[in-house]
Amino acid sequence: MQQEQASPAVQKRVQDSFDLQGLMSHLGARLAHIGPGRVHIVLPDRPEVTQQHGYVHAGATSAIADSAGGYAALTLFDADSEVLTVEYKINLLAPAAGDHLEAIGTVLKPGRTLTVCLLEVYGVQADGARKLVANGQQTLIRVNKRTE
Predict the structure, then answer these.
(1) % of the chain beyond a pLDDT of 90
(2) Is 77 within 8 Å of 141 (Cβ atoms)?
(3) CA distance 69 to 103
(4) Which of 8, 50, 84, 117 shows the greatest Cβ crowding within 10 Å of its Cβ?
(5) Among 58, 56, 43, 66, which residue's Cα sits nearest to residue 118?
């Protein structure tokens, strides 16, 4: 399935911002798709992100969902804007298992101040089989880029 790509400038801005996130680096997450209003983040299943039963920890699952939604919103704003999460709710639907997790953030309602996103996290097996393991909704606020 071919998905629309964001412009090269937007892709670079999102990737540069993502690269500054210590948590995503620590978890081993990476951006897999950057499209207008839609971002995918992949998290490999490895011992460092699991809980005591061997599933990917809910904290790691929630973190990649939160970031996917935030970056999905960021793709729709100008270069002088950033986003911060105001709130999100996540439903853990099944144990987070697979070769990797894929979090998908999709903008449902963009706004000048507040934006609402759909969050989905899939457990993806090595053969490509996918299972929805978490879903949620997020509200973000657009803020002006900080100047240091």
Answers:
(1) 95
(2) no
(3) 9
(4) 117
(5) 66
